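Hey, resending since the last one bounced:
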Amino acid sequence: MQTFTVPAREEVSPTNQVLFDNLQKAIGRVPNLYATMAYSKNALGTYLALQSAGSSLKAKEKEVINLVVSQVNHCDYCLAAHTTIAKLNGFSDEQVLEIRSGSITFDNKLHTLAALTKSFVVTRGKPDTELTENFFAAGYTRENLVDAIVIIGDKIITNFLHGVTQIPVDWPSIPDLQEAQA
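The structure tokens again:
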């Protein structure tokens, strides 16, 4: 089996070195998964552009999508990262666990988003029609649906990258969902 290590700044292309420097300035470090993208001359820049693109969805809604997709795909790295980000966006530990389960009791609109997101991932892009109708009935728009799909795709990229590389998680540890709900 191929072993992946996290590349250091001097091991990546000059273009990626600039991106590493920008990440260092912006967030104080280069997360391991971002650094791993730098094995490619283009992937890190492409991914950062995708991730920072505008969206009709609010930060909390994006984190609902990120957490649900990462839970379905069992991505420990992304779950740890997005648990931290979700809490920075105002979610409590208990709410994060509900989001990860895909069944949210504290906000019906976010529940419809989580349910549709989970259906998208589980059915590989062919969600339950009733869940799509519920999404629109909750007040979401076609623009929101397209933006949700883009965010789902974004998270699948990182889930898959971590799945194959298994690089170390450099975010605070999180509880296993089943153990936390027991």
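The CA atoms of residues 37 and 46 lie 10 Å apart.

Sorry for the duplicate.
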